[in-house]
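Protocol step 4 of 5: obtain the predicted structure for the target chain.
Materials: sequence only (see below). No template structures provided, no constraints applied. The aim of this step is simply to have a reference model before the mutagenesis design in step 5. Sequence pasted as it appears in the construct record:
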Amino acid sequence: MVWRSVVALVGASVLLSSLPGCTENPGKDRFAAYFCEEQEPEHSERGECDGGECVVEGHRWGKEIAYIELDEGDLESADLIMEDTWPVPRYEPVKLPHSLTWREDPYGEKYWQFVFYGLRPTAHLLWAYRETGLRKYRDKLMQVLESYSQHGPSSPYGWDKHGTAFRAMVLVNTYWKLKHANALSHQEARLLEDMIRSDAVFLAKPRNFEDSYNHGFAQAAGLLLVAENFPGWPESPGWRELVLSRYADLLDLVIAPDGFIVENSVYYHFYVMAQVWMLAGWAKKYDVKLPGNLWAAVDRMVYVGARIIQPDGNIPMLGASQARQVRRFLPPLFYGLAEKYPEFRHTLSAGMCGTAPTDRLSTYWSGGLAILRSDFGGQKEYLAQTHVTFDAGPFRTDHSQLDALNLVLFAAGRTLLTDSGMFTEDPGPEKDYYQGTRAHNTVVVDGKDQALGDAVLGTSITGDGWLYQSGHHTLYEGVMHWRSLFLLEKDVVLVLDRLTADTPHQYEQRWHLPPDLMPTLEGTTARVENEEGQRLLRIVQANPRGLSVSTVRGGKEPVDGWYSTNYGKQREATVLLYQRQGGETDYATLFAAGEYATQHARVSSSGSGSVYEVQACAAGHAWRIRVDGVGQSQESVSVERSDASCQ
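Step 4 output (structure tokens):
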């Protein structure tokens, strides 16, 4: 029996031409337009399973798959595996022995181990068999699974807690897809059942459940999928109740009360949001009970998601994040979220439809996150808006980074100040760099990383056309770092830093540019241009006396000046370093983007103790600013426009 894959267009590699509503009007963002089009409903269950085999042995077709991407595949990858060449995302396909030992580790990388020993590449063989009906793909699939059943359980890589969850889901899908195709012998069925039960027993043990971050969601989903697809097993009722309890706790503990995931990673925020939404849709379709707090958690996550996505659809790479273009990530899946949440639809559609959020400054206190935006605007102005994310949160999980008071700046249609990303999870100098303080847009003290601990989000103010957010930390012994951020208007951002200590220290303010941007220095002022020579950003410092400036790009000893959007891949990127030495030290840094970047700008500052005064000028616009109560629980801020002083 051959089925057409219903979900092939759902993956992250979906072709634009395959999306309904995205083939017309090439002058607009066609991925964004997709979320405004009325889409055809999903294929009916009868169409998916070609009628007579919708129910086999009491099992309803489709119930075997909850995470849609595990049902995907492609013929090219399947054919590679037929030749014993194994494709794993983020790595070059690698030739492995025909008779696998299940000790293979060609890259020495945790992520490769996680995917390969989770048996996720075997989905290509299942997909190819379903698409073509050629038995060679089914036979290769079963040969691999039989080999794993013999040697995998003793592999040093076979019992990763996260990988086992995905392996359980892969095996459940394989078992029932082949059952519905009448392509599984009695002996093969018993073998797969034993493998599935073994993984479920492992997942049920308390020590194998990671309840404090994103892994727990897949671990709970894997165990629930087993329980629901094998309801006759004596363990299944107990597993089901265990999962309900675990999932309820995850929804309250990992998804914080303010909606931002406790890992303080934008990438993992959307990773978990997609998993929860997929499981919710699967549960609704197949009448599976889920915890009562699920929808409140989805509400919270989507609220954050509608505000944290940058105007171009990319995420700011705060925390342990990789690149993610949200409009192109599982579009039909997120279309369902957009239908339910009008503000999320507005964000995904780049202002073409939906309801624009009204809070230009949103704060998430448990996560220590603030998002500042010049406006949401309609379709024509959407990409031109300025968007800043500011991190003053706690260090809560292994995916947190030492990045207190870090910020990411999007303006003039693109990211201008970026986080460095997440290159590897394997111990070594590269991990130390990407997780450490030097990889972020903050101030490094004495060349060291911040200590593990919490920053504190400070005062939030929405003024007359301007926004203000502050925060502080004491993560360097004997040093208090206070930072405030002004979004004065579109394309004009001011950052104030005050560092106080009883003894002198070496302070280094760092600004990370994307790889394609290069600075030209004129004293302490930096003119930042793209590869075509277009000036996009001007960075101006107050009080240049005693301030030194340098750059680093692609440094190896120590590792510095690198940027990674995907595991295992990095590019050289320029970092601007502004150094001062002293006890109490101030920085007042003005960022002028877009058209303002080509015009004159200046900034000066004064004050000490709890007072900070600034005068800033950009493209003929001027501001007089005063902050009282610096670093205290209640700061007062005044901002006056005084354009005449700019002349």
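Step 4 remarks: Residues 206 and 332 are 35 Å apart (CA to CA). The chain is about 30% helix and 25% strand.
Proceed to step 5.
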